[in-house]
Amino acid sequence: MKLYDTLLDNAFWQRVRSDPAYADALSHIRAEYEEQAKAPLTVLPFTLRDRFYTDGDRSQFEKYYFGRRVLLSSAAILALVYPEKAAYLQKVEDTLWAICDEYSWALPAHCTGDYADDTTMVDLFVAETGAAVAEITAMLRGRLHPRVFARARVELKRRVFDNYRDRRFGWETVRTNWSAVCAGGIGIAMMYAAPELMEEFLPRLLASEQCCMDSYTEDGACLEGMSYWAYGFGYFVYFADLLRRFTDGKVDLFADPKVKLMATFPQRNLMMGNTATSFADGNMHAKVPLDLYHFLHRLYPDAVTLPPPERMAFNEGNCRWVQFLRHFAYFDPALCGGALPKETYYLPVAGQYITTRDTFSFAVKAGRNDEPHNHNDVGSFILSTAKGQELCDLGAGLYTRQYFGSERYTIFCNSSLSHSVPIINGLSQHEGGEYGGSMQTSGNTVTLEIGGAYPADVGSITRSFVIGKKCVQLTDAWTDKVKSFTERFVSVIEPTVTAEAVRFADCTLHFDPKAVTPKVSVEQHCMHGYKKDAEGKMPLLPVYCVDFAVDPAMGRVTFTFDM
Length: 563
Known about the structure:
Distance between the termini: 55 Å
Radius of gyration: 25 Å
Strand order of the largest sheet: 13-14-15-16-23-20-19-18
Shape: globular
Helix content: 25-40%
Largest sheet: 8 strands, antiparallel
Number of strands: 23
């Protein structure tokens, strides 16, 4: 049994230290360390934790919570690479001690605020913190002060293993990234710090990992978006890799053919202009995690193809440590990606179609309005050129209490009003599993039925795309149940409007000026991951909505996007 505390020995870290291929990663980690080390390790204030329950704000508490975990992770890597520099090890000890002092390792957003729940909850970040504490103390065993080591292991047992034994959690059976991250973090921690528990708890952990697998469609799509593929499937891989080592190959989750299909998800979702499909709470600027895709490429060389180097990036998760370590364990300096392939992917179960041509990439989805991290977006499409997403999907907004509560669809980016879909009879789409659409393909034509996504009986709304070499033609058609029809196109690029066209960057939207006239309005979007500026305000991204009021008696309307 070889876990990473034995595989990555002093000789390995000396090679990392001297090999230029690791210089960028080390420079990034050092910068993270220097930034976080500026602030003193103070108590996480009650007032900041309580803000989630008073006004829904998560950002200020999480800034400090994640900041100290970034500090721990970066200090631990630097302590391994530069063992002669005592300051790094001392910072690991101080940060571990501070994390042991915390009221709860769970985020307020994932707890009720009741003391009993706060202190026994095992959420994403209890699991991540547990994995980090277990793996760091294993890798620095013998160098850490004995009291720090002992206290960290006691807190790990109390906050993670005992609570997992004594409670059952909703994430254990949900089909989202949670099942993989939580079970993966707990399993990684157990394999290092409490291997004797694995026989008892492995079936329960594996059941949760199966829920993660079940969250993917049979054609291998992650409905939560590419960022959550990196997070959820990433933890699935980290756990599965360690488990295979722990069991000397007897338990091998990678042997399942569906896992192989899940591994190919990113390469099917990259688009031109350094963008990716950003359906649901995705990220239009998502990169493929460099180390993770190197691992998967070696594991499935016939299926996982490496994208261009600029489309892969040093992987940063929320708590960092597991990703930081595996960058060094998985990264292969000899591997290099190729060009973005001009391929077409049709995922009938997921209801998604993605294609890349010479001058553009196009993606469209059907699906239902109750998907994980759902947006009301049946029929929404993305057009990307070398300039980026010109007809866009905004992806995730700023995470607050309201974002995940009853007010979710009053937030612009989650509503169909922020997507390139029609407004019918004055109505936007409605959330819920009964509101959905269907998709069919024939040659270069993709046809959707989207009428069922609206809350009233609007009849059949047929949306068809004919995809040419340098253009996409969209035709929407409807029945006489439609009394008003407004076509909406959404972009983060300010458009230029003329009498017969709307130009974004490299994409020009053509329409019949005798039938319709464009009207541009501007909304504001605060993206997930944004940080407050110097004045304490969240930066807002202007979003341009180009609307065409169409005479419903026409029964159909056609637009052409020329690239």
